[in-house]
């Protein structure tokens, strides 16, 4: 592996792009700001990765030095594109309907599925269930391949898009609804239990 120090300036003799499917090489090079015959230093590599990452189109970005000569370096910008959303499926939900869950998440067809999306979606659904009293709901999210084979009759771009498309499957175990049997107050000297219960009027006590 070629090592260069942080202050060393080098000339880029060649900039290749690998791993892109829908994102164009021109756009990737332009966003990265790494151009052939340009003099750069190591900090420019870090900035290039950050710029590409901020696009939200990639789940992995790496810059690899392929070859070193006396005149400079040949590099490859290697990317892995984020999947494209096809359909969202829900399995195991009985108390809350698919439409209610869909409205909460606000997914749309064709959006990029960024790395943090699944974790954030699980949190949203758990909070949504908790509002309805299902504090013990268990939810998992996985990416699955859509049904149907890739259509060879489509254009190259459409086939690439179809190959990137993933469905999201939420597997839900709602568990029992949590009910509060009794609320006890301690240390309340200024306010009575009755007055405090009125403040908590949205919390129903099971009698």
Automatic annotation (TrEMBL):
Protein name as annotated: POTRA domain-containing protein
One cellular component term from this protein's GO annotations in UniProt: outer membrane
Organism: marine metagenome
Xref: InterPro entries: BamA/TamA_POTRA
Upper taxonomic lineage: unclassified sequences, metagenomes, ecological metagenomes
Domain POTRA: 15-81, 85-160
